[in-house]
Every structure is written in structure tokens, then in C-alpha cells.
Amino acid sequence: MTVFAPPVTLSGAHVQLEPLRVEHHDALVQAVRDGELWQLWYTAIPTPEGMAAEIERRLGLQAQGSMCPFAVIDPTTGLAVGMTTYMNIEATHRRVEIGSTWYRRSMQRTPLNTEAKRLLLAHAFEQLNCIAVEFRTHFFNQPSRRAIERLGAKLDGVLRSHQINRHPMGAGALRDTCVYSIIASEWP
Q1: Rounded CA gap, 47 and 103, in Å?
Q2: What is the arrangement of strands in the sheet containing 154-164, beginning at the earlier edge strand?
């Protein structure tokens, strides 16, 4: 089986993205504790106790060819500070979504996120020959929406009542999902 988006390491000045491994577990547990990120009601971030299951889930989806998960590494410490992925991979249509991304609170609003996204976009368009890269986020996740828009992504639309929120603070509420994209003719 040919894998459209095989594991790869992507490096920049402010971040390194390396294939997610079980060995990243302890650093990711520490990262998610910085800001108690699992408490955010408008996104799905694993709890410290759920980190092993989340790593296993992402690696399982990688084995099926529908996800390529990365550990986000701070090059100054060499430690994992979050996760990101190529997900919803559509090899036939040469499309990927960049998502399931989170970073420890102390790394948010630093050059790390922008550089990570630019590395993923460059790899998607220049090595994978994607015709489109998609981003999705909760309608109410304003920090994420602003960050996606700063990358130059365009809002394609809003999927209304797209998902049922599972977070205890918003359990049962319906999520509207904003869908953004960058297409090949817009890159770089």
C-alpha cells in the first residue's frame, strides 16, 4: 500500500515536527498540564490520563492511512510541547486537513505555531502536491480562527450543527464548524 502522507520530520528555527511516537507521552502529559488545556470547552484536547489513548488513537489512524500525526518539539529543550496532524487525508483528490493541533499554554502566541503551520503547508503543497489544504475549527474558537486567517486561509463556509459537543462544560450542545482552506494557486 502506497501511503500518500508518510511520516516525515520537518524542521525550522522555532519548531521541529517529528513523527508521533509512544515515547513522547511523558512530555505531552506535562505540556497538556500547562494551562489545563483539556478544560477548554470548544476543542478536544486529551486529559493527562487520556494521553496514552490519544497517542494510540492517532497512531491507529496513521496505520489506516487517514492521519499523519506529529509531535511538536521545542528545539530549545528537545521536548514535545504539543501535537498536530495531517488528517482526513484524501489521496485521490490530493487533499489534507491540518488539525487536531494543540500546544502547551506557554508556547501559544509564539512563532512556534506559525512556523509549524508553514512547514506543514510547504510540505503539503511542495512534496505531496496537494491541490488544497483544509483547516476546521469550532465557530467560537476565536484564537484558532484568527491564527488560521493570518496564514492566508479563506473561510469556505460554516457547517451548522456539525457535531455534538462531548466536553462536560458544553455536553450535548451542537457545534458549528468553520471550514477554511488554502488552494495550490494561493501558495505560497
Answers
A1: 13
A2: 10-11, 16-19, 67-74, 79-90, 95-103, 132-138, 174-183, 154-164
User: Three-state DSSP class for 163?
Assistant: strand
pTM of the model: 0.93
The span from the CA of 53 to the CA of 178, in Å, is 27
**Beta-strand relationship, 95-103 and 132-138:** parallel
Neighbours of 36 (CB within 10 A): 12
What is the radius of gyration, based on Cα positions, of the chain?
16
Task: Report the alpha-carbon distance of residue 105 to residue 33 in Å, rounded.
Answer: 9
Rounded distance between C-alpha atoms, residue 48 and residue 28, angstroms = 8
35 C-beta neighbours (distance < 10 Å), count: 17
What is the residue type of 90? E
* 46 neighbors 54 (Cβ within 8 angstroms): yes
What would the pLDDT profile of 136-170 be if each residue is shown by its tens digit?
999 989 989 999 999 999 999 999 988 887 665 56
